[in-house]
Amino acid sequence: MDAFARADVDGCADAFAPDGSYSDPGTAGPLSGQAIRDHFAAFFGGFPDATCETVSLDPVTGHLSVWRWILRGTNTGSYRGLPVTGRPVTLPGCEFIEVRGGKLHRVDGYFDRLSILVQLGLAPAAPSAGQR
């Protein structure tokens, strides 16, 4: 979490065990090894001013915790092949984090992908109740 808050790609990747995996709604499936490093590099390249506020960090079991967060950043670089928009995003989400032997074994992230696209102006917003 600290490495992510510092936009430290190496710190993020090095926190994972050699067989560790990462997934979120934007990944095609669980990532491992160099793909984890590439994923974080691409994210911070697209949102270099990203900040992450911890809402809570709650243990579920001895090895599993839930991290609830709010991400804020401005899209000033290429991200996942999408055009640069210069728009800010505010995105709440959570991650289920499994730690074993002091390293991340599995991280499963959850957030609303459509919300990002709407905030970036790349998808239409749903009509409000008054517009239906």
Helix content: 10-25%
Strand content: 35-45%
Q: From the 3D coordinates, which CATH architecture would you assign?
A: Roll
* Spatial sequence of strands, sheet with the most strands: 1-5-4-3-2
> What is the level 1 CATH name?
Alpha Beta
- What is the rounded Rg? 16 Å
Bulk shape:
globular
Mean pLDDT: 93
Q: And the CATH topology? A: Nuclear Transport Factor 2, Chain: A
Distance between the termini: 41 Å
- What's the number of helices? 4
**Main beta-sheet annotation:** 5 strands, mixed
How many domains?
A: 1
Q: Give the SSE string.
A: HHEHEEEEH
Question: How many strand elements?
Answer: 5
Low-confidence stretches: none
Structure in a nutshell:
The protein is α+β, with helices and mostly antiparallel strands. It has a single domain (2-74, 82-123), classed as Nuclear Transport Factor 2, Chain: A.
Notes on the structure:
This protein has 132 residues and is of the alpha+beta class. The chain has helices at 2-5, 9-14, 34-46, 113-119; strands spanning 16-23, 51-59, 64-74, 88-100, 103-111. The chain has a five-stranded mixed sheet. It is globular and about 50 Å long.
Task: Annotate the secondary structure layout.
Layout lengths: L1 H4 L3 H6 L1 E8 L10 H13 L4 E9 L4 E11 L13 E13 L2 E9 L1 H7 L13
